[in-house]
Amino acid sequence: MTRVATTWRETLGDRVSDVLRDEIDSYEDHMHLVHRGELDEKLFMELRLRRGVYGQRYDNGKRHDGEKTQTIAFPCGDAVKGTQTVWDAPGMQRIKVPFGKLSATQLEELAACAEEYSDGVLHVTTRQDIQLHFVHISDTPDMMRRLAAVGITTREACGNSIRNVTACPYAGVCRDQAFDVTGYADAVATFLLGHPDVQDFGRKFKIALSGCEDNPCALVRFHDLGAIAKTRAGADGVLERGFDIYVGGGLGSVPQQARLLYAFASPYDILPICQAVSRVFARLGEKQNRARARVKFLVSKLGIDAFRELVDEERRALRPDPRHRDLIDALSVHHEAPSRPPGELPAVRSAAFDRWYADNAKPQAQEGYDTFVVKLPLGDFSGDQARALADLVRRYAGGSLRTTVEQNLALRWISRADAVEVFDALSAMGLAEAGALTITDITSCPGTDTCKLGISASRGLAGALHTHLRVIEEKLEPPIRALNIKASGCFNACGQHHAADIGFLGVSRNIGGRRVPHFQLVLGGEWAGNARSYGLAVGAIPSKRVPEVVDRLTVDFLAAREGEETFQGYIRRIGKAAIRASLKDLMEVPSYEADPSFYSDWGDPREYSIGDLGVGECAGAIVPFVEFGLKQGERQVFEAQVALDSGALQNAAHEALRGMLTIAQALTRHLGIEVTDEPSDIQAQFRTHLYETKRFFDPFAGGKFAHYFFKAVQSEAQTLDHEAVHQRVEEAQLFVEAGYACYDRLASESAAA
C-alpha cells in the first residue's frame, strides 16, 4: 500500500529550485556559525535582514487584535521590552509578495507556516507583503524552503536592497487604468531580484507601478522610483503605451514628493532606467550617515536635472542585456482567466449583503464581474481563514487574490451571479465586514506591539478607533465615511500617516514627571492622485483623547463644509490655527491622581512610564523652566506651519528656525550652561553640551535631528522655495519631538542620581 506523505519535505522538498536551495543553505550555514560564536553577529545581520528576518520587540508577548489584547505564548518566558536579539526570542519574518499576487496554493502554504512556526496570524503590510510574527530564527531556513517550493521568496524583503515591488491590486480589471501594469511590475521585480547593481546601497529602495494618475492604489509619489502608465495616439493612429517615471519620493521622518524623471518612457526602457537609477544611487548615495542614505536626499542634493544627466550616462554605459526586452515581451504570461462566466446580481439578496456590496465591491472593466475587497482590521487574518480563502478563490476568483496597501485583500473576477454565494462564504469565515476603504478601514504600523522603534501604540489606537467608529458607523454621513485614517507609532511613517485625511504619529510627553503617550495629529494629506500631497502636524493629542478628536473633527467638518468641499479643502480654508484652537481642551492631560488611564497606552494596563520628580510646595507641581521653553518652541514651529499654509514662505522658514533655537536654548540652559540669545552661541553651546556628548542623540536615529537644526542655522540667510520650506517645517517638528525626548532622558538621569 502506498504511504501517504505527511511532512512538507515529502510533499514540497523536490520543488525548490537549485538556486534558491543553495541560497537558503548558505543562509543556514552562516546562521549556525553565528550561533556557535564563529561569525560576528553584526556581519550576519545584513544577511539575515536581506532574507527578511527581524528581531522584534516584546511587551510580555502582547498583540492587539482590535477588540482585545491577545497574550502570545513563547518559550523564552517573560521579556523586557525592546531588549531581545533574534537569538533570545522569536522574531518577525517578512515575506515578499510582488505586486501583491498570491495563488491559492501559496495561501495554503503560508497558512501552514503561520500555524507551525508563528502565532497563526498572517499580517498584510502597507507594501503588500505578508509578515509572520513570533517566529524563531532556528525555524526560518525550513520556512524559506517551504515558501520557495511554491514560488515565494523572502530574499531582499529587508536590508539595503530593492524592497517588494508594489503595484495597483486592481491592475488589469480597473476601469480607470491606462493599461495593465501587472506584467511590468513582475518584470521589474524579477529583473532586480539579486541583481549585482542593487547590492551596494546605503539604505532601502522602494518601487511602485500605477495604472493611472488619479487613484491611490499604488502611491507612486512617495516612492524612491515609480511609474505611472500613460497612453497616447501614435503616428499611425495605434494607441501607444508609455510610463511617466518618478524618482526621489519618500515618507519617513521628512516626506518628499517624487519628481518627474522621464515623461512617457517606452515600456522597453523601464528596466534599463531602473538599473541605471540603481547604479547612480549605489555609486553616489550616502553610505555613512544612514539618516540621509535614501535616494530622495541624493535627488535633492543634485537637483532633478543633474540627476537625470547621471542616469542618462549610466544608461549609455550599460552592457547589452537581452532581458531588458525579453521580460517585457513575456507579459502575456500574466493573463488571468476567470473561474466562472459573467452574470448579474441575484434578484433575491439580503440587506446585509447590499450594505456590504455597496462598500466592498468594485465594478471591473470586464462586464459582469466585480472585485471584492476583504476588509482586514489591522491587516490580520488567520491560517484557517487563509485556507478557506484558497478554496474560495479556486472556485470563484481565477485561482488567486491580491494584497493591498490598505492592508486588505482583493478577490478579483467575481461573477456577479456568484456574489451572494461568495459573500455568504466570507461571512462564514468571519471576513465579511463592510466598510472597506472607508473611515473604519484604518491603516496602522505595528507600533509598540512588536517594533523596536515604536513610541506609542499605533496598532492599539487603530483597534480602539475601529471599535469606536463601528459603533456609530450607521450614523456617519457619506463625506465622513469617505475619509481615511492612518497611524504610525514613530516618525518613520510606516503607517503612511502623512498622506491620510487624518493621520496620527506616535510621540510622548512628560506630564508632572510621568510620561504620557501622545499622537501628533497630522492634517492636510491627500491619499488620492497617488498620494498627491502631505499633511503637517497640528499638535500633540493624548493618546486616550484621539477618538474624541476624530469625533470633533468630523462633526466640525460637516457643520462648516461649503457645498461639495473636500476635507483637504476645508482644512486649507479655515486653517490649522483654527483647528488647533478648536481642539485645545482635548490636548490637555489630567493629573495622574485625577485619571491614571491617560498614563497607560491602548491595550496595555501598565503605566506608560514612571519618572517621579517629586511634588512641589502646597501640593502643586513645580514646572521646570525648560518645559516653558519646550512649549514655546513647539508653538513657534506651529506658527511656521500656519505661515506656510498662508504662502508666507520666508516667515515660515524663520519661525521654524526660531522654534528650533528656542528648544536648543532651553535644553542647554537646563544643563546649567550660560547661553545668550544669539543663534551662533545657541548652536555652539548646543553642539558642545548636547550633540558632542550625545545627550541629544535618539536611541535609534542618533544625531539626525540635531543635524536638521545645524542645517537650518547654516542656511538661515537663503531664500527657500515651497518644497524646501515645507521640509524645514517638517524637520523642525521632528526637532521639537526630539527635544521632548531628550528632556525626558535628562529628567530620568536626574531622578536616578
List the helices and strands and how they pair.
Elements lengths: L7 H5 L5 H18 L5 H10 L2 E2 L7 E3 L4 E3 L19 E5 L5 E3 H14 L3 E4 L5 E6 L4 H10 L16 E2 L14 H11 L14 E4 L14 E9 L5 E9 L11 E7 L4 H15 L10 H8 L1 H14 L5 H7 L21 H10 E3 L5 E6 L5 E3 H14 L3 E4 L5 E7 L3 H11 L13 E2 L13 H14 L6 H4 L3 E4 L13 E10 L2 E10 L4 H4 L4 E7 L3 H15 L6 H8 L1 H7 L42 H22 L2 H22 L8 H13 L12 H11 L7 H31 L1
Parallel strand pairs: 8-9, 9-10, 18-19, 19-20
Antiparallel strand pairs: 1-4, 2-3, 4-7, 5-16, 6-7, 6-15, 10-11, 11-12, 13-14, 14-17, 16-17, 20-21, 21-22
Helix pairs in contact: 2-3, 2-5, 4-5, 4-12, 6-7, 6-10, 7-9, 8-9, 12-13, 20-21, 20-24, 21-22, 21-24, 22-23, 23-24
- The 3D shape can be described as globular
Predict the CATH topology of the largest domain. Answer: Sulfite Reductase Hemoprotein, domain 1
Distance between termini? 76 Å
Q: How many helices in DSSP terms?
A: 24
Quaternary class: single chain
Strand content: 15-25%
Largest sheet: 5 strands, antiparallel
CATH architecture of the largest domain: 2-Layer Sandwich
Radius of gyration: 26 Å
CATH class of the largest domain: Alpha Beta
Query: Low-confidence runs (pLDDT<50, min 5 residues)?
Result: 66-84, 610-623
Question: Can you say what the CATH homologous superfamily of the largest domain is?
Answer: Sulfite Reductase Hemoprotein, domain 1
- Counting DSSP E segments of at least 2 residues, the number of strands comes to 22
On the 0-100 scale, what is the average pLDDT?
Answer: 89
